Structures
1.
Amino acid sequence: MTDQTPKPVAVVTGAAGDIGMAIAAQLSATHIIAAVDIDMIALEGAVESLENHGADIAAIQCDLTRADDLARLAKEAARLGQVNTIINNAGAAAALTLHQMTAETLSRDLALNLEAALNCFKAFEQPLISSGVGNVVNIASVNGLSVFGHPAYSAAKAGLIHATRSIAVEYGKYGLRSNAVAPGTVKTQAWKIRQAANPDVFAEALSWYPFKSLPEPNDIASAVSFLISPAARCITGVCLPVDSGLTAGSPALARTFTQSPDFDGF
């Protein structure tokens, strides 16, 4: 007998981007996808591509920093079925340094990279609880674990990692799991545009990475797929770096020490 149980719904924000698309594609095997982005033109193109590959997916335009948009998003996603998974993937960085940061860029970084994710969770709080098997995965960043520039963005991502743990602790009694994924440099289209201007950009980045291969968007999606799967049923409140070893330690920094004439061992 064929199982006629309808697929649950996974909400994926930032779905028009490379990582969001990869997450939506992988999760479509087990979920109906509510694909969310502020850029409707780019989102429709991404959704059409996934539909052509058999995904059950709907495009929903939303400014995640607006309360009225989030309320509408929750209603539209509910029409698709039982929401049991939220992937807070949307994010962007403004100022590169504290010197360049202004009150406006600080507000933008905090609003999109921290507040939007928490507000999105709250918008779907009741369906996640009622599902009894809810999952939240927040796409953080290695920037939330160490200092790599973009300090306001990094502070927001550090806050997001803490919020991930708070959700895990407070909502675990409802069967809800909450985890984060922290990518390092990922070979997205944005980085490939940089490569067009600087053909050595990936080689330069790799000097900081112990594992000499940078993640692709599908690597981030695979981590997300694992964390929401039954294989990870007792994993909650963690932040999983997918960073080719960057947060473990830098070979470039190690070389700086070991090549010093004053080096006498660690």
Note: The radius of gyration is 19 Å.
2.
Amino acid sequence: MRWFDQALFELAESKGGLDSQPYRDAKAKAARLAGPEGIDRLLRESGADLLVGVTNGPAWTTDLVNGDHYTGPGVSQLPAVAGYPHLTVPMGAVEGLPIGLSFIGTKWSDGDILAAGYAYEQASRKRVAPTYRASVTR
């Protein structure tokens, strides 16, 4: 723990366990807001079959003094919390750093998501083989 102390671990440990009622309530609320009231609602109200978005912005450097310089946006949180299917495929690169495109669907739409992602990959041919880049020193 060279750069950080134990404060976050101690705070987490002071909370109830995974079987505590406050945790179970918060988990159920998060799943409801991300799934039925989030992804399902977006799909229903838009008439869309699936959601498509940039998975994350390009990779960023870690700055131990000022914090990470996250460039966003990102769409992976909602399906992760809801437990819904989410597929990321290559979309290209920004200054040599890969960018992914996310396909997100409602519960049990895994096959549709895989088919859409595969169709995009075959049509776009955006995958770029990784290459080694020397480290940048400051």
Note: Strands lie at 51-54, 86-94, 97-104.
3.
Amino acid sequence: MPDAALSQALQEAYASAPSEQIILHTLELRHPAFVDGLGQTTAIRVVRDTADLDARLESSATLNGGEMVRFIAMGFELDLPPVDTLPVPEITVTLDNVSREIVRHLDAAAESQAVIVVTYRPYLSTDLQGPQMDPPIHLVLTEVEADIFRITGRARMLDVGNKAFPGISYTAKTFPGLTR
């Protein structure tokens, strides 16, 4: 079954594997504790390639939506979630040769109760004006382990089965008419 989120160009690239078009896999890790030297919220952005990548994010991106951003070249492993009947698909994400900056951000995140969100975006080398999957895949990173060579974590799709429905809590405080 085709994935409706994939662009037509990416579907063709997967199907025909042309040598002049390279699929560039990117990851973005976000957490409220990830801040830059100026105290501004930032994200860790990496591309599985040998050179850094400047590409435009989708307009609905949480940080820097619609802007050109830099993805740092880094080796990583990621198997996309299977189409399966499991309640919450899980995958393993491994980043190789991580920098001190990434370890510093992850240490800051470990002291917080907030989750690390991982966003996967594929780009085509011939079109960097936006990801070739809209919406991109968002995962929650858990069980992070780090050593001097790599960082490994389990990532899972947002657990929709355990979310409250409806998403609004009808309380007397937010809906005063309920007390009458």
Note: The chain has a mean pLDDT of 82.
